[in-house]
Amino acid sequence: MKEIVIVKDGLELTLFAPDFNGGYYRGTRFDHSGIFRRIVKDGFVFADEWFDGYDPYRHDTVCGTSEEFGQNGYEDVEPGSFFLKTGVGLLLKEDDSPYDHFKLYKVADAGSWTVTCRDDEALFVHLVESDDWSYVYEKRVRIIDGDTFEITHHLCNTGVEVIEGQTYNHNFFTFGDQRPGPEIEIDFPFMPCGTWRAEYDSVALSEKGIRYSRPILQGESVFMGNINPMDGTEVTGEVFSMSAAGRKVTFASDRPFDHIVFWSNHRVGCIEPFIPYRLESGEGSEWTYTYKLS
Questions:
Q1: DSSP assigned state of 210
Q2: Residue 232: what pLDDT?
Q3: Which of 221, 191, 223 is nearest to 207 (CA)?
Q4: Which is nearest to 19 in space by CA: 100, 83, 107?
Q5: In 3-state terms, what secondary structure has residue 76?
Q6: Cα separation of 262 and 273, whole Å?
Q7: 217: closest CA among 230, 200, 241?
Q8: Which residue in 6, 16, 133, 233 has its CB near the most CB atoms, within 10 A?
């Protein structure tokens, strides 16, 4: 597997190049460009492996900032035909069961990847071409300074069919080996509202964000899938911050989110802002995420 390390002013990002034959991540859920392995600032590890056991084909064998796009065409094609998963390629629909992003699908056409690196940035370009689904996708990971890095995206629909859905970033930050519990604080620049998937005695919304009341135990998980500002305002710029172990990560976006998902198990807690997109043939879209570490 090809490891890519970019460094500037004490901030070091370790990533992997896309490779279905021998890459770090070979699943069909997450975007294969800029697969993060580790985020380190001045010797402190902000993001690392959070899962138990390593399997390159498992749907969530990803670290740090991990992005996923929706699929296109699965419901419209017959078994034996192909559908599109942006950032992955053309996948095979094997049967009539509903689409499941946890499932490992067969890759019919992974497209072509170009990776260009400098000391402080890496550019990933994905080209997919078919009769129906075609696009050019560019993702650039760049260190701005010792405190900040950004991820810029450009997706252009060069095919016939509309490419639409939502994209989000899973944000697997581990803060050293800090386990989810009261030591982790998650703040929003707005008063949040939403509905928990179940009744939990371990976590709750506060006026500022999300607070744990006790550690999450092994085998437990918590989930809220519809976090939004209580007053309904549109949010761009800073979206959330997460603090633990005397460190802090702040996430900002230049595009407004549709909603935010929160998920946590006993190893990691994640804030996932979802951004919608719809691209007719010939249309493109750009968006940027900025991370500040302190």
A1: E
A2: 95
A3: 191
A4: 107
A5: helix
A6: 9
A7: 200
A8: 133
Contact 261, 224 (CB under 8 A): yes
Torsional sign, CA 204, 209, 146, 115 = positive
pLDDT of residue 279: 98
Largest CA distance in the chain: 53
Q: CB–CB of 119/7 below 8 Å? A: yes
Give the 3-state secondary structure of 2-38.
CEEEEEECCEEEEEECCCCCCCCCCCCCCCCCCEEEE
Strand order in the sheet with 89-92: 71-72, 82-85, 89-92, 107-109
- Claim: this prediction has a pTM higher than 0.85: yes
pLDDT, tens digit, for every residue of 106-119? 999 999 999 999 99
Both tokens assigned to 46:
């902000």
Question: What is d(CA 211, CA 263) in angstroms, rounded to the nearest whole number?
Answer: 13
What span, in angstroms and rounded, lies between the C-alpha atoms of 171 and 47?
9
Q: What is the reported pLDDT for 45?
A: 98
- What pLDDT does 1 receive? 82
Determine the pLDDT at residue 252.
Answer: 98
69 half-sphere exposure, CB direction, 13 A CA radius: 21
pLDDT of residue 233: 94
Q: Distance (Å, rounded) from C-alpha 82 to C-alpha 108?
A: 7
**Residue ranges of E strands in 119-176:** 121-128, 135-145, 148-157, 163-169
Predicted local distance difference test score (pLDDT) of residue 51:
95
CA proximity to 171, closest of 183, 160, 186: 186
Q: Which residues of the chain have pLDDT under 50?
A: none
